[in-house]
Design the sequence.
C-alpha cells in the first residue's frame, strides 16, 4: 500500500513539472476506481463518466497546488464528491424536460426520445431482491449522506480518510455516518413495507 | 439514557468502540426497552446489508478513457492559449480576452476602484491609446509610472504599442497611499472583471481577518507588499485568513480551497499594467 502511495507521489511530482505522460499514467491508474465510486453515487454510466471527466480536469488544473499532505486518492475522492454535488446542484436549477416534448427538424416534428438506462426486467430478477432494495434506498438518501455511506461501505475508506476527504473532524464523520445509517434503516423499512406480500 | 440519545451510539456499539461506561448504560437500555432493541436490530440489519456493495462488480465503460482524455486536452489547450502572449497577459483570462480585442477591436476600460477616473482605449484596434484621467506621469530615467494627481486635474496617456514594447511603461499602475488600492480592468466582451490590487507604501501589520475575496486580496497585498490580481466569477465569496510565514503564495494557498481557486506566482499581469518582480494571481477553476 505504501509503495503504491510512493508511486503516486512520483507521478505527481513529475506531472507538476509538466510531464504529460506522468499525468496520463496517474489518470489511467485511478480512472477505474474513480468511475466505480461515481457510478455508485449516480447509478448512471453517462453521468458517472461526466463526474469522473470533470474531476480529472479539476485535478489537472489544481495539481500544482497539491502538497501531498494527504494521499492522492483521498484528494481524488474529495474532488469526485464535489463534482457530483455540483452537477446535481446544476441539474436542480435547470428546467425539467418534458417527456412529451417534440423537436422541430428540417424533416418535420419528431418526438423527443429519452434513453432508458435502467436494468431490464430480466436483469432485475437476476439480482438479489434485497440488494435491489438496498441499492434503491441508497439512491434515495440525501446526496451528502449517500457519499459518506459509499465512501465507508463500498470504497472501504477509513474514518480518517473520509475526514480528510471531506475536510471534517473525525467525530463529525462518525456522527454523520451514524445518521446516514439511521436514514438508510428508515428507508429500507419503508421499502420493505411496500414489497411485503 | 433516552431512546434518541441511545440511537447516537448505534454505530459505535456495533463497531465495539463505545467506552466501558457508556457500553454498560447502552446494553442496560437495550435489555429493558424492547422497542429500542427492535430498532437497533433493524439498524444492524441495514448496515449488514451494505456488505454487498464491496463485492459489487462495476464495469467501466469503454468510452471513459477517451472522454477523460478529450476533456484534459481541452483544458490543456486552453491553458496554452492563455500563455501565448507571455509577459503581457500570462493569466488564464488574458489571451482569450486579447484575442477578442484583436478580432473585433473592442475597448479596454481601466477603472480605479476609488473612482479616480476612467478611460477607454483599444488594444490592437483603431484607437491604441489608454488614458487615465486625474493622474500624472512620473519619469525617472527609464522608469515611468502613473500616479493619481493630487489636484484631480490632468491625465496620462499611453498606447498599446508602448506597452507591447515594454520600453517605457514599467509600472503604470502605482499607488502612493499607505494602504493597498484596487484597480478594476474590464475587457469588453469578457464577463469577468480583473481586479488588480497594488500595495501601498507601508506594509500592513494585520495577518488575521475574514471578508470577501477582494478584502482577502487587499490584506495579502498589504501584509506582503506584493501586487495581487484576482479574477473570479464571484469575488463576494467569504474567506478567513491567518497569514503565516514570508511567502505570500504559500500564505494565500493555505487560506483558499485548492479545489476552487488556483494561486499562482507570475512575473507580470494586470494586462501588462503591473510590472514587478512577481505578483500573486488568484483565479477560480
Sequence:
Amino acid at each position: 500500500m505504501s509503495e503504491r502511495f510512493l508511486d503516486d507521489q512520483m507521478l505527481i511530482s513529475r506531472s507538476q513539472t509538466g510531464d504529460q505522460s506522468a499525468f496520463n499514467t496517474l489518470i489511467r491508474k485511478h480512472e477505474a476506481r474513480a468511475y466505480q465510486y461515481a457510478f455508485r453515487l449516480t447509478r448512471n454510466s453517462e453521468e458517472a463518466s461526466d463526474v469522473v471527466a470533470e474531476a480529472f480536469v479539476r485535478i489537472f488544473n489544481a495539481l500544482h497546488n497539491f502538497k501531498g499532505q494527504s494521499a492522492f486518492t483521498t484528494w481524488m475522492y474529495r474532488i469526485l464528491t464535489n463534482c457530483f454535488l455540483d452537477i446535481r446542484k446544476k441539474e436542480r436549477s435547470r428546467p425539467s424536460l418534458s417527456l412529451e416534448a417534440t423537436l422541430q427538424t428540417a424533416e418535420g416534428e419528431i418526438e423527443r426520445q429519452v434513453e432508458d438506462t435502467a436494468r431490464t426486467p430480466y436483469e432485475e430478477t437476476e439480482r438479489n431482491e434485497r440488494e435491489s432494495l438496498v441499492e434503491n434506498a441508497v439512491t434515495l438518501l440525501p446526496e451528502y449522506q449517500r457519499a459518506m455511506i459509499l465512501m465507508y461501505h463500498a470504497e472501504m475508506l477509513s474514518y480518517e480518510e473520509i475526514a480528510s476527504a471531506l475536510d471534517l473532524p473525525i467525530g463529525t464523520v462518525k456522527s454523520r455516518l451514524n445518521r446516514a445509517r439511521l436514514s438508510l434503516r428508515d428507508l429500507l423499512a419503508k421499502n420493505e413495507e411496500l414489497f411485503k406480500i | 439514557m433516552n431512546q434518541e440519545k441511545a440511537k447516537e451510539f448505534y454505530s459505535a456499539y456495533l463497531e465495539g468502540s463505545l467506552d466501558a461506561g457508556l457500553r454498560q448504560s447502552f446494553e442496560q437500555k437495550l435489555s429493558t426497552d424492547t422497542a429500542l432493541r427492535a430498532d437497533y436490530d433493524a439498524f444492524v440489519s441495514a448496515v449488514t446489508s451494505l456488505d454487498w456493495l464491496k463485492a459489487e462488480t462495476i464495469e467501466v465503460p469503454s468510452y471513459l478513457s477517451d472522454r477523460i482524455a478529450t476533456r484534459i486536452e481541452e483544458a490543456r489547450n486552453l491553458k496554452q492559449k492563455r500563455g501565448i502572449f507571455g509577459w503581457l497577459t500570462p493569466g488564464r483570462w488574458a489571451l482569450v480576452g486579447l484575442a477578442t480585442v484583436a478580432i473585433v477591436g473592442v475597448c479596454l476600460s481601466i477603472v480605479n476602484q476609488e473612482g479616480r477616473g476612467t478611460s477607454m482605449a483599444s488594444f490592437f484596434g483603431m484607437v491604441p491609446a489608454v488614458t487615465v484621467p486625474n493622474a500624472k506621469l512620473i519619469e525617472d530615467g527609464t522608469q515611468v509610472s502613473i500616479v493619481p494627481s493630487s489636484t484631480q486635474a490632468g491625465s496620462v496617456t499611453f498606447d498599446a504599442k508602448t506597452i507591447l514594447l515594454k520600453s517605457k511603461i514599467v509600472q503604470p499602475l502605482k499607488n502612493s497611499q499607505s494602504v493597498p488600492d484596487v484597480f478594476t480592468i474590464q475587457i469588453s466582451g469578457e464577463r469577468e472583471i480583473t481586479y488588480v490590487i497594488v500595495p501601498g507604501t507601508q506594509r500592513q501589520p494585520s495577518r488575521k481577518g475574514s471578508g470577501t475575496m477582494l478584502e482577502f486580496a487587499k490584506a495579502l497585498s498589504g501584509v506582503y507588499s506584493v501586487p495581487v490580481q484576482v479574477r473570479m466569477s464571484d469575488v463576494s465569496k467569504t474567506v478567513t485568513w491567518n497569514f503565516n510565514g514570508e511567502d505570500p503564495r504559500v500564505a494565500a494557498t493555505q487560506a483558499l480551497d485548492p479545489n476552487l481557486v488556483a494561486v499562482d506566482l507570475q512575473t507580470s499581469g494586470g494586462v501588462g499594467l503591473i510590472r514587478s518582480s512577481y505578483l500573486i494571481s488568484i483565479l477560480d477553476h
